[in-house]
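Thread title: Can someone regenerate the structure for this chain?

I was given the following input by a collaborator and told the matching structure tokens would be attached. They weren't. Posting the sequence so someone can regenerate them.
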Amino acid sequence: MRHGPNVNKLIANKIAIDMAPSKDSLQGTIQNLLTPGKLQSTGRAAEEWVAQAIEAVRLAAEPNPWRTATDEEIAEEILRTVVGRKLRVTKIEDIVCHE
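Best answer:
Regenerated them for you:
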């Protein structure tokens, strides 16, 4: 499926997080990169995770200004929030529950 630049950046961010088992584990990250099929499966999982995160934002309780927003607009706001707070987003709740 084709995505816009913000959705793609969010997917890439999630892949980077998931490929690095911990912040300080370069060896684990390299092992993940060398494991056949790991990057592809992580990419598919990240794409699904981002779709679920965007849908969770869209379905959040009122008042919800994002209900009619595009995937790109929601992804842009998630990225702005993550970069602004330097969050390491690992759960959908990290996006939806923070103000």
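The chain has a mean pLDDT of 84.
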